[in-house]
Task: inverse folding
């Protein structure tokens, strides 16, 4: 293989020095077809410029920390192959719609608050004692919520959602999908308790079904579906006289 | 909650810009979908006007056939079709129908929606044309 | 000076750390807990565990066999009282996880399902498809959100344990966001910082697995136990080191060499693909050396073949493996065999702790992969680790809760001085450092490659001695590193430097411990001493830090209760 | 965190969303055929359509079922349109479109259209079953 090279442009921003972010260009060897965008950043950090900052850990698409915008699309950089871009250059910027802390690192406190706000834990009227063993649950019952339990909190969906971009008060795709994950779990009885947060004006109603959240989701969670289904279910609770109110 | 909050450092929030929907094909088509509301609303208002016109008695009645109106309808039609297509397709995502305790595949739901659309169009069309003279 | 003060401080937001934090508040809801983690908790490396968590839940199974499998798997280096307690607690913890919402895969009758795993004589590995760690971590993390007593310090990097009058009273941590140094004090500290895989080049471990907690404890004078026992997993994807879970073999996958032969029949004829990890890794390495491996762009490999299982089984039990194959290798495992080779995976060794996580330093507890409570001995059985994090995380939490009810709060004067010292040390060594020309990345890569070669699947005296010298040189070069990043805000280069510092420390301990153990036991396989030597080495190695480069090693007897050491054949 | 203060489900939003979705289905199923037949084929003379002659048109408009149909056909989609256009403004960077006054204007307009439609239908052709 001839010595291939690829140009990576990455956002640089140091709040202690810079007023606003800028792009810096790096020309690096593209030595192996298995290389992903994250490998390119790691190469830069190890061999060219140690001050480039970004988050990553697992390098296998499961920890959810390496989400960035790659050529305009939110991606997990550990699963975005350079071969899909080469010979074009690759522009890596932080996830959209979040405040930039430093270089490619965004502030995710808002997201963490939102996760917590929907009470993502099993709520029961009566806990069963440990000694009674497990709740029985069939694979079909798991199938009800399985898709929505695959979320790795990578926030790509928030970066893709213009509604969140326009107004950060919006509860957003992943948090609502997670709420639905618990609401659909046969062990959970907390739908009603989560309702005020979910059916809040800044909750499900704010979503105008752009659907891009589901397009970018790397784990097939389909938050857009979760949100629309929640709208429908919630509406039915109130529209049907005895609908669905447990 | 976490102790960091108090030591907030300066962050940079990139502006969103009103032209965000031009950045990506998908966003653009979303805006088109939302925009369909406008031509459809105008067309229905026209229909309402047509009905109201009939109330003024037979003397002044003339059938709707200005070229401008045909052009206007022709413009509205793609929007109407796009609305129908997107709305019925997305309905497949939302609806959860269970048949014999098995969730129905969303493909089946979408097919049913489009089937209903077809039947409704045929019935309405038949009435509109069938009573015509 | 006033510092944030808590009853219990947990360092680490992985499965062990979060389980410990919840155990503290469950034991006593009035206690205030701090959880310090260098990444947001759901990013912790537990998230990538795939296969499952072992627990005796089926009526056909018994505590005795789980205990025996674990002890035999450990090559008799496990403390048997610890194992016996562990197997009894594990089912309770798995049920607890179920109550908290973990989506365990189920049997048709709705009970938690189990799958076979390497070295286990029966089906006892509970699983949530092949994303078990992911589901467990998110479940405990989300559950922990309901406890307002747990105060998280996310993205705070612990750099030092605060020790006052022979008692651990907190940590110094850098808030990565602001770059601020904080002393976070508590009456007790639980270390749950996970593994150290990044010491090696080819590893399944994430970027954050750098042995920090082990190094922190070591520097505070606590011994590190059995550090020569490093697990190599037989089936990692070449190049990336991404793990192909043992569940693939558990569900019936075959390992074949380039002649299409299931070569394990020569090594573990009775167990074949369900043999323990250390033996299969050695078998593969031997096959490579004898020329029966495939040759690829990223070195030698074997085939792991699941084609005969069929698409339905693969999609219901191993969906993530199919996803990984598709994304990272460009193959569909339904139609193509998976290329695999042995890869560093797990650290049996760790901070010297007892059955309740108690370390020799008062007020300091340890749990999870960073601890060595005596469960795993020379070789951990697959799926015992997630259960270990739960059982011993909970035990450490309860123990710490008990301890703090009588312990007094730490004073602030010495803490203030210690914070000042530590801040000054880090500023001088890294932040305000001028000059230097060594790249962190270069030193790290050389260390990792040297460890792969010198302290890998097979070891020799020459190799290990050479490694100690290489590490010594790297340590000298580390003094001359260059820090390009002068910002205080999210300075990942500073983190990388401190992590490298920790890794060089633990790499040394691994190497010296391995050099001294002149036998082959479990994962520690010496070419020059191929036999197990119970007379001399049925003992734990405990390494202590000295001012010299080499640690001081002590040996401690293994506790044997019901299972007399026998030859370990499968 | 502000959301700790007790939140109640937003029933108004729920109602408007319900109307929005009903109107959307209706518009999707019915409007195209009206446009095609009454807006294009009829005026072009391709087919005979009921509104081409005063008698046919007025007689069908007198049918109570037709009246009801037309009421639903015209008014319900307006709740859909009102919702979409309001959010279209939001999307174009007019956050004020979310405010309560904006809701009054948009949904009020839909209600107004409904009232006008009722009035028109009641005053147009006398109800007859013929
Ligand atoms: C790919 C893979 C697959 C596996 N599969 C299985 C399996 O199927 N079954 C099984 O039983 N085991 C499995 N294991 C092993 C098991 O996952 C781990 O041993 C276990 O998850 C470790 O958990 P932990 O809580 O100890 O550490 P981790 O989950 O690694 O958490 C460590 C925590 O410590 C924090 N931390 C570290 N250093 C610092 C510092 N300096 N300052 C502040 N915080 C710090 C980190 O932020 C993190 O939150 C697997 C491991 C890997 C790598
Ligand atoms: S829903 Fe998908 S995109 Fe959004 S955070 Fe979860 S995994 Fe990421
Ligand atoms: S992109 Fe946003 S608007 Fe809704 S469907 Fe997804 S959350
Ligand atoms: S590094 Fe973990 S998801 Fe990419």
Result:
């Amino acid at each position: 293989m001839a010595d291939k090279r690829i140009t990576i442009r990455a956002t640089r921003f140091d709040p202690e020095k810079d007023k606003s972010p800028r792009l810096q260009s790096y020309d690096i060897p593209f030595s192996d077809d298995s290389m992903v965008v994250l490998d390119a950043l790691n190469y830069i950090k190890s061999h060219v410029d140690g001050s480039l900052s970004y988050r990553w850990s697992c390098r296998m698409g499961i920890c959810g920390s390496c989400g960035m915008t790659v050529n305009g699309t939110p991606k997990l950089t550990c699963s975005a192959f350079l071969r899909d871009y080469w010979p074009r250059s690759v522009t890596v910027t932080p996830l959209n719609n979040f405040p930039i802390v430093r270089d490619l690192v965004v502030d995710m406190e808002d997201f963490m608050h939102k996760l917590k706000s929907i009470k993502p834990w099993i709520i029961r009227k009566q806990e069963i004692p440990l000694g009674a063993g497990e709740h029985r649950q069939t694979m079909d019952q798991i199938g009800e919520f399985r898709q929505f339990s695959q979320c790795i909190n990578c926030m790509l969906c928030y970066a893709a959602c213009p509604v969140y971009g326009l107004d950060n008060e919006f509860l957003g795709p992943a948090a609502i999908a997670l709420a639905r994950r618990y609401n659909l779990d046969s062990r959970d009885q907390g739908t009603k308790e989560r309702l005020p947060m979910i059916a809040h004006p800044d909750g499900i109603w704010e979503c105008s079904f752009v659907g891009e959240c589901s397009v970018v989701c790397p784990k097939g969670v389909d938050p857009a579906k979760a949100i629309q289904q929640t709208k429908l279910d919630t509406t039915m609770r109130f529209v049907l006289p005895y609908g669905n109110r447990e | 909650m976490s102790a960091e909050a108090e030591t907030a450092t300066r962050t940079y929030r990139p502006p969103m810009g009103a032209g965000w929907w031009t950045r990506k094909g998908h966003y653009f088509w979303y805006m088109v979908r939302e925009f369909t509301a406008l031509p459809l609303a105008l067309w229905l208002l026209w229909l309402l006007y047509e009905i109201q016109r009939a109330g003024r008695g037979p003397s002044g009645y003339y059938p709707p056939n200005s070229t401008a109106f045909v052009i206007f309808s022709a413009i509205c039609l793609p929007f109407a079709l796009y609305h129908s297509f997107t709305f019925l397709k997305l309905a497949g995502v939302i609806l959860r129908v269970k048949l014999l305790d098995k969730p129905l595949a969303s493909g089946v739901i979408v097919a049913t929606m489009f089937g209903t659309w077809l039947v409704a169009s045929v019935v309405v069309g038949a009435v509109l044309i069938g009573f015509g003279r | 000076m006033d510092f944030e003060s808590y009853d219990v401080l947990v360092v680490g937001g992985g499965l062990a750390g979060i389980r410990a934090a919840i155990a503290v508040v469950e034991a006593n809801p009035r206690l205030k807990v701090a959880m310090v983690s260098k990444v947001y908790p759901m990013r912790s490396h537990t998230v990538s565990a795939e296969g499952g968590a072992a627990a005796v839940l089926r009526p056909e199974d018994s505590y005795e066999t789980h205990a025996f499998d674990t002890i035999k798997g450990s090559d008799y280096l496990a403390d048997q009282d610890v194992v016996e307690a562990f197997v009894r607690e594990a089912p309770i913890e798995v049920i607890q996880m179920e109550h908290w919402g973990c989506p365990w895969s189920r049997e048709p009758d709705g009970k938690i399902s189990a799958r076979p795993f390497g070295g286990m004589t029966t089906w006892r590995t509970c699983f949530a498809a092949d994303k078990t760690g992911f589901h467990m971590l998110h479940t405990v993390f989300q559950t922990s959100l309901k406890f307002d007593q747990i105060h998280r310090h996310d993205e705070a990097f612990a750099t030092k344990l605060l020790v006052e009058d022979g008692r651990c009273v907190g940590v110094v941590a850098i808030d990565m966001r602001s770059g601020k140094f904080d002393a976070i004090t508590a009456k007790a500290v639980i270390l749950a910082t996970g593994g150290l895989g990044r010491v090696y080049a080819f590893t399944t471990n994430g970027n954050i697995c750098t042995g920090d907690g082990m190094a922190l404890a070591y520097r505070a004078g606590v011994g590190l136990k059995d550090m020569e026992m490093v697990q190599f997993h037989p089936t990692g994807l070449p190049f990336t080191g991404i793990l192909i879970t043992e569940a693939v073999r558990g569900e019936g996958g075959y390992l074949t060499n380039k002649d299409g032969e299931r070569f394990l029949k020569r090594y573990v004829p009775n167990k074949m693909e369900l043999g323990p990890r250390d033996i299969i890794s050695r078998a593969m390495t031997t096959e490579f050396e004898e020329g029966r491996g495939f040759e690829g762009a990223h070195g030698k490999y074997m085939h792991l073949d699941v084609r005969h299982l069929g698409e339905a089984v693969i999609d219901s039990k191993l969906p993530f493996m199919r996803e990984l194959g598709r994304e990272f290798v460009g193959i569909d495992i339904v139609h193509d065999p998976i290329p695999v080779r042995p890869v560093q995976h797990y650290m049996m060794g760790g901070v010297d702790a007892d059955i309740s996580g108690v370390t020799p330093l008062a007020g300091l507890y340890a749990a999870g992969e960073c601890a060595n409570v005596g469960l795993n001995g020379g070789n951990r059985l697959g799926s015992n680790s997630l259960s270990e994090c739960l059982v011993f995380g909970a035990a450490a939490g309860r123990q710490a809760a008990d301890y703090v009810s009588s312990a007094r709060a730490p004073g602030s004067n010495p803490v203030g001085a210690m914070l000042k010292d530590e801040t000054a040390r880090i500023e001088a060594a890294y932040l305000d450092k001028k000059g230097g020309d060594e790249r962190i990345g270069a030193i790290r890569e050389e260390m990792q490659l040297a460890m792969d070669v010198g302290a890998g699947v097979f070891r020799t005296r020459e190799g290990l001695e050479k490694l100690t010298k290489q590490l010594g040189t790297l340590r000298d070069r580390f003094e001359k590193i260059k820090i390009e990043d002068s910002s205080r805000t999210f300075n990942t280069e500073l983190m990388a430097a401190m992590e490298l510092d920790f890794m060089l420390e633990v790499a040394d301990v691994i190497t010296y411990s391995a050099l001294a153990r002149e036998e082959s036991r479990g994962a520690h396989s010496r070419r020059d001493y191929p036999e197990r030597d119970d007379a001399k080495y049925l003992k734990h190695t405990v390494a202590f830090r000295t001012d010299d480069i080499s640690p001081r090693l002590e040996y401690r007897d293994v506790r044997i209760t019901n299972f007399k050491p026998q030859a370990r054949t499968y | 965190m502000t959301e700790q203060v007790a939140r109640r489900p937003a029933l108004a939003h729920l109602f408007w969303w319900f109307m929005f979705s009903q109107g959307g289905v209706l518009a999707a199923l019915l409007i195209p055929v009206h446009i095609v037949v009454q807006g294009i084929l009829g005026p072009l003379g391709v087919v005979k359509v009921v509104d081409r002659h005063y008698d046919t048109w007025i007689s069908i408009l007198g049918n109570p079922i037709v009246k009801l149909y037309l009421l639903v056909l015209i008014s319900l989609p307006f709740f859909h349109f009102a919702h979409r256009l309001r959010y279209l403004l939001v999307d174009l960077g007019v956050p004020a479109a979310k405010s309560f006054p904006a809701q009054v204007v948009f949904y009020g307009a839909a209600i107004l259209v409904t009232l006008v439609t009722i009035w028109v239908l009641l005053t147009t052709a006398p109800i007859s079953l013929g």
